[in-house]
Amino acid sequence: MEKTERDQYVAIVRSTPDRLKAALAGVPKKLLTWRPAPGKWSIHEVVCHMRDAERLGYLHRYTEILAKDNPTFPDVDGDALALERQYRRLNLREVLRDWRAARKESLAIVKKVKTDQWLRVGTHELAGPMSLEAILQRQALGNDEAHLAQIGDIKKRWEILSRLQETPKLLVALLRGMSDEALRRKLAPEKWSMLEIACHLRDVEEFFVERYGKIANHDRPQLRMINQDDLAAKLRYNQDDLALVLKQFQGLRAESVAILGALAAQSWQRVGVHPKRGDVSIAWTAEHQVEHDANHLGQIRALREQFAGS
Questions:
Q1: What's the CA gap between 310 and 304, in Å, rounded?
Q2: Rg from Cα positions in the chain
């Protein structure tokens, strides 16, 4: 490994404390302890794992490999430690303090490593022989970069699911107090009324539920489309009952959120084939759904302001 490459890995390891601090800044306690899927770690648990990986893994390996000839490194079983040490019950502030102290020790050792020492070798009980520079690379990429990305993914998934769960409440709030006439009024024959937009959100939700289910359970399934204007005319959206529409939308949205909440992180990258867009992942579809909500809520908000008092 060239010195410039090693320096890049050292820079990553050195920058991680600041990047982790930034990643955790302003994160509410509820999100810190939220698990993105059944059996998956929360941000709190990820940080606890980083602390133990630092002390029992990297710091131990750096110390051993420089002091002994070809030492043996035990595997750090993250899942076993999470259970044995009851990560969910640990004080996160204390865990972070201990992790930072351990990282400081690791960096102090790395800083003093001489050029010829980077090739010293130890043997991991599962991964086999690894040099000091290979351990550094593993710490920078397999640990620091991977776990910071994991925390970012959890935060993003939380935001998506939170916004999807919030939409039915926002829709109810926007339509509350509007007269029946205002709910069904159109600005032009080709434009939708507030009621029709609500009906559209309900029926499109069925497609999101269908797509999530297909993509999650089949390899690159074909996804279908609808002509939304034809459907609105066929189902006579503007003659529908608002209370029933809202109830149906709430039920369907709960299904969408339940499916997404049960999927492992890697499953969010599964794809289906859209007739126009080609390959689309579950992650992309969920983000598109959030944007779709925001667009139609904005339309209703604008109509409400225009028809205020009607």
A1: 9
A2: 26
210, amino acid identity:
E
| Per-residue pLDDT band at 38 (split at 50, 70, 90) | confident
**Is residue 9 within 8 Å of residue 136, measured between CB atoms?**
yes
Q: Identify the DSSP state of 263.
A: S
**Dist. CA 11–CA 234, nearest whole Å:** 62
Three-state DSSP class for 281? strand
Whether the Cβ atoms of residue 59 and residue 139 lie closer than 8 Å to each other? no
For helices 242-262 and 194-217, the axis angle rounded to 10 degrees is: 20
Q: Is the pTM of this model over 0.85?
A: yes
Count how many Cα atoms sit within 13 Å of the Cα of residue 232 in the half-sphere of its side chain. 18
Element (H, E) at 303: helix 282-307
What single-letter amino acid sits at 37?
A
Q: Is 103 exposed, middle or buried (0-12, 13-18, 19+ CB in 10 A)?
A: buried
Residue in the structure block whose two tokens are 């600005």? 187
Average pLDDT over residues 7-27: 97
Residue 269 phi, psi (nearest 5) = -95, 0
Residue at 33: amino acid letter: T
